[in-house]
C-alpha cells in the first residue's frame, strides 16, 4: 500500500503545482470577462503565452499562440491578450463556458473555469410561465449539488419544492420554476448559485411575462366592447347627418324662384248660363274667364 500511497501523493502535488492559480469565475451573458494567466507576467514574456480552450464534448482548441490571437478562431473578433498575458473575452455567451488553460515557458500553468448563468422563460399554458435557470460550466468539475441553484421571490423567500402557485425542480445544473399567473401582480423572481457554504456566487432577476390567462381575457373583452361602442357612435352620427340632409332637401323643394312665377298661375273658367230668362227677351251668353295671380312675397 505504501508505493500506491506515494504515487497518489506525487500526483496530487504535481497537479497542484502545474495548476497554480486555478479560478472559478461566474458571469452572465453579455459581460466582458478577463481570464488571469497565473501570478502575472511582464510584457516581453507574453510572446511565449498560449491559451487553450475546451468545451465538452468538443476537442481542445488553441485560442492564443506565441502571444497572438489565432485569427481562424470563431471568437477571434472578441478575444484580446492584455499586457499581463490575461485573456479578455468581450460579450460572452453560454458557448464561452468551459475550461481555459494559460501556459507559458518557465511559468506554472494556470487553469480558469468560466461558469455562465442564464435565465429564460417558456410558457406551457396561458395561465402559467416556466423559468429555466441554467449554469453552463465545464463538466469535469463536480456536478451541481442539490439546492445549489435557488429561487427566491421578491420578498426574499426561498421557493423549494411545491408551494402556493409555484413548483421548483432541479436536474443537475438546471433549475425549473413554474409559477401561476396572478391577476394584478408583476412579481420578480431571483435565481442564485450558491456554494457549499451557501455563499452566493452569482444571481439573476427575472420578471415573467404571461401571454394569456384572466388578464388576457379581460383585455380581449375590453377591446371588443370598445370597438362596438365606436361602431354605434359612428352609426348614430351617420343617421343624424342623413336626417339633416333629407330635411334640407325638403325645404329647398318648397322654395320657388322668380322664374317659376308663371307656373304659379291658376286659371278658372266660369260659364254663366241664364236658362230662366224671360221668353221674350233673349240674353246673350258670355263666357267669362277668371285668373288668379300669386304674387311673390318680398
From TrEMBL:
<dbReference type="GO" id="GO:1990782">
    <property type="term" value="F:protein tyrosine kinase binding"/>
</dbReference>
<dbReference type="GO" id="GO:0042110">
    <property type="term" value="P:T cell activation"/>
</dbReference>
<dbReference type="InterPro" id="IPR007110">
    <property type="entry name" value="Ig-like_dom"/>
</dbReference>
<protein>
    <submittedName>
        <fullName>Uncharacterized protein LOC108887489 isoform X2</fullName>
    </submittedName>
</protein>
<feature type="signal peptide">
    <location>
        <begin position="1"/>
        <end position="21"/>
    </location>
</feature>
<keyword id="KW-1133">Transmembrane helix</keyword>
<dbReference type="GO" id="GO:0035723">
    <property type="term" value="P:interleukin-15-mediated signaling pathway"/>
</dbReference>
<dbReference type="GO" id="GO:0070374">
    <property type="term" value="P:positive regulation of ERK1 and ERK2 cascade"/>
</dbReference>
<dbReference type="InterPro" id="IPR003599">
    <property type="entry name" value="Ig_sub"/>
</dbReference>
<dbReference type="GO" id="GO:0045121">
    <property type="term" value="C:membrane raft"/>
</dbReference>
<keyword id="KW-0472">Membrane</keyword>
<dbReference type="InterPro" id="IPR036179">
    <property type="entry name" value="Ig-like_dom_sf"/>
</dbReference>
<feature type="transmembrane region" description="Helical">
    <location>
        <begin position="217"/>
        <end position="239"/>
    </location>
</feature>
<keyword id="KW-0732">Signal</keyword>
<dbReference type="Pfam" id="PF07686">
    <property type="entry name" value="V-set"/>
</dbReference>
<feature type="domain" description="Ig-like">
    <location>
        <begin position="3"/>
        <end position="113"/>
    </location>
</feature>
<feature type="region of interest" description="Disordered">
    <location>
        <begin position="272"/>
        <end position="298"/>
    </location>
</feature>
<dbReference type="GO" id="GO:0042289">
    <property type="term" value="F:MHC class II protein binding"/>
</dbReference>
<dbReference type="InterPro" id="IPR013783">
    <property type="entry name" value="Ig-like_fold"/>
</dbReference>
<feature type="compositionally biased region" description="Polar residues">
    <location>
        <begin position="288"/>
        <end position="298"/>
    </location>
</feature>
<dbReference type="InterPro" id="IPR013106">
    <property type="entry name" value="Ig_V-set"/>
</dbReference>
<dbReference type="GO" id="GO:0009897">
    <property type="term" value="C:external side of plasma membrane"/>
</dbReference>
<keyword id="KW-0812">Transmembrane</keyword>
Amino acid at each position: 500500500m505504501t508505493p500506491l500511497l506515494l504515487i497518489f501523493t506525487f500526483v496530487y502535488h504535481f497537479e497542484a503545482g502545474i495548476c497554480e492559480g486555478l479560478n472559478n469565475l461566474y458571469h452572465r451573458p453579455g459581460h466582458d470577462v478577463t481570464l488571469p494567466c497565473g501570478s502575472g507576467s511582464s510584457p516581453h514574456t507574453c510572446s511565449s503565452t498560449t491559451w487553450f480552450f475546451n468545451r465538452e464534448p468538443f476537442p481542445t482548441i488553441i485560442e492564443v499562440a506565441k502571444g497572438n490571437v489565432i485569427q481562424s478562431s470563431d471568437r477571434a473578433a472578441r478575444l484580446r491578450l492584455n499586457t499581463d498575458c490575461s485573456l479578455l473575452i468581450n460579450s460572452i455567451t453560454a458557448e464561452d463556458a468551459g475550461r481555459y488553460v494559460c501556459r507559458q515557458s518557465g511559468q506554472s500553468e494556470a487553469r480558469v473555469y468560466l461558469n455562465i448563468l442564464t435565465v429564460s422563460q417558456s410558457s406551457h399554458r396561458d395561465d402559467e410561465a416556466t423559468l429555466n435557470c441554467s449554469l453552463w460550466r465545464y463538466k469535469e468539475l463536480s456536478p451541481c449539488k442539490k439546492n445549489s441553484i435557488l429561487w427566491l421571490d421578491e420578498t426574499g423567500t426561498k421557493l423549494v419544492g411545491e408551494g402556493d402557485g409555484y413548483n421548483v425542480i432541479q436536474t443537475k445544473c438546471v433549475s425549473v420554476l413554474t409559477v401561476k399567473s396572478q391577476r394584478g401582480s408583476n412579481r420578480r423572481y431571483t435565481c442564485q448559485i450558491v456554494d457549499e457554504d451557501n455563499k452566493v456566487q452569482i444571481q439573476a432577476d427575472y420578471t415573467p411575462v404571461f401571454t394569456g390567462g384572466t388578464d388576457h381575457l379581460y383585455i380581449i373583452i375590453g377591446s371588443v366592447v370598445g370597438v362596438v361602442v365606436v361602431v354605434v357612435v359612428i352609426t348614430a352620427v351617420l343617421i343624424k347627418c342623413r336626417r339633416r340632409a333629407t330635411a334640407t332637401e325638403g325645404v329647398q323643394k318648397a322654395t320657388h324662384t322668380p322664374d317659376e312665377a308663371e307656373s304659379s298661375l291658376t286659371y278658372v273658367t266660369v260659364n254663366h248660363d241664364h236658362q230662366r230668362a224671360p221668353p221674350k227677351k233673349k240674353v246673350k251668353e258670355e263666357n267669362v274667364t277668371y285668373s288668379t295671380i300669386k304674387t311673390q312675397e318680398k
